[in-house]
């Protein structure tokens, strides 16, 4: 279960299970405002995200690659050069590189 900063169990309300869906919808709205479909997806010939794409684990490999593609695009959009990860790159190396770039902001 979830714990607070002191390690005590956190009580979650009945709507807590749906919070991840709300977060995903907010993420999708923000990506649309940034024109992610035209700028990120078309370049890589990818389909637009569904409202629940990252909220439900369906295909972890595909979801991870989509996350990395979006992270690389967002970092580049923020003005930093960032090489687009390839589908078969080492996941640990890709995440390490993304986190390193984000820390440098």
From TrEMBL:
<dbReference type="GO" id="GO:0030992">
    <property type="term" value="C:intraciliary transport particle B"/>
</dbReference>
<dbReference type="GO" id="GO:0005794">
    <property type="term" value="C:Golgi apparatus"/>
</dbReference>
<dbReference type="InterPro" id="IPR019530">
    <property type="entry name" value="Intra-flagellar_transport_57"/>
</dbReference>
<protein>
    <recommendedName>
        <fullName>Intraflagellar transport protein 57 homolog</fullName>
    </recommendedName>
</protein>
<dbReference type="GO" id="GO:0042073">
    <property type="term" value="P:intraciliary transport"/>
</dbReference>
<keyword id="KW-0966">Cell projection</keyword>
<dbReference type="GO" id="GO:0005929">
    <property type="term" value="C:cilium"/>
</dbReference>
<dbReference type="Pfam" id="PF10498">
    <property type="entry name" value="IFT57"/>
</dbReference>
<keyword id="KW-0969">Cilium</keyword>
<dbReference type="GO" id="GO:1905515">
    <property type="term" value="P:non-motile cilium assembly"/>
</dbReference>
<comment type="similarity">
    <text>Belongs to the IFT57 family.</text>
</comment>
<dbReference type="GO" id="GO:0005815">
    <property type="term" value="C:microtubule organizing center"/>
</dbReference>
